[in-house]
Amino acid sequence: SQKIEQNSEALNIQEGKTATLTCNYTNYSPAYLQWYRQDPGRGPVFLLLIRENEKEKRKERLKVTFDTTLKQSLFHITASQPADSATYLCALQSGNTGKLIFGQGTTLQVKP
Amino acid sequence: DTGVSQDPRHKITKRGQNVTFRCDPISEHNRLYWYRQTLGQGPEFLTYFQNEAQLEKSRLLSDRFSAERPKGSFSTLEIQRTEQGDSAMYLCASSHQPRDRGANVLTFGAGSRLTVL
Fold first, then answer.
1. What is the CB-side half-sphere exposure of residue B71 using CA atoms within 13 A?
2. Cα dist. B64→A93, B4, B12, B18 in Å?
3. Cα distance between residue A61 and residue A77, in whole Å
4. Please, which pLDDT band fits residue A2 given cuts at 50, 70 and 90?
5. Which among A104, A107, A81, A88 has a CA at the least distance from the CA of A25?
6. Per-residue DSSP letters for A39-70?
7. How many CB atoms lie within 10 A of CB B78?
8. Contact B45, B57 (CB under 8 A)
9. Which of A68, A69, A94, B87 lies 20 to 30 Å from B77, alpha-carbon distance?
């Protein structure tokens, strides 16, 4: 069956360090992989997407990699700040329906 | 346009009662999605509309759940005979219909939190 897995344990890092979050999937052939940020009591907010034929994408302090052989995406936040503390969700988009399937999310805590 | 609006933000109800949630999407968006999210989990897809047509429904959506999008604008999600297991955050999102095999980026509302006692 189709499955998306993110680190279920919270990630705690020190301010200024690089945070790396993992998204693994099985039995999918996604056309796109997207990353969203979600703050408590709020809806997810889109951050970045990467296409199946791209290896890496950057946006300011964010970097996403996509390895369709390993079926894995890594999401990096460099020079992390306490304001980056949130839950980060990966989502797969398959085919042309546009439907997104989400992972369970990883909570990041950046300590000053 | 202020984004996707959902109402009410919080709803507490007794088991067996009916509840209805409303979603007003971004006006230029022709696609509208409903997701359900429980604590510690990611959003789970429920259903989506393209304009007024409901194109897909998840198997999670039992016959107690019904969604409508009359005239392709706002949408309602009704839950009949609520059960304690229905307690969750109900998220609405909208998007432009992507071009053929294009990326589909969702804009979410803040959600409607349902508590069934």
1. 5
2. 28, 25, 18, 9
3. 6
4. confident
5. A104
6. -TTS--EEEEEEETT-SEEEETTEEEEEETTT
7. 13
8. no
9. A94
Per-residue pLDDT, averaged over A7-34, amounts to 92
DSSP-based three-state secondary structure for B84: helix
pLDDT at A8: 78
> Which residues of B have a CB under 8 Å from any CB of A?
4, 31, 33, 35, 40-45, 48, 55-56, 91, 93, 95, 97-98, 100-101, 103-111, 113
Q: Phi first, then psi: what are they for A29, rounded to 5°?
A: -130, 75
Question: Residue A63 and residue A73: Cα distance in Å, rounded?
Answer: 10
Cβ–Cβ below 8 Å for A105 and B42 = yes
| Chain B CB within 8 Å of residue A51 CB | yes
pLDDT digits (tens, 9 = 90+) for A51-93: 989 999 999 999 999 999 999 999 999 999 999 999 999 999 8
Give tens-digit pLDDT for B69-82: 998 899 999 999 99
| pLDDT at res. A50 | 95
Confidence (pLDDT) at A3 = 86
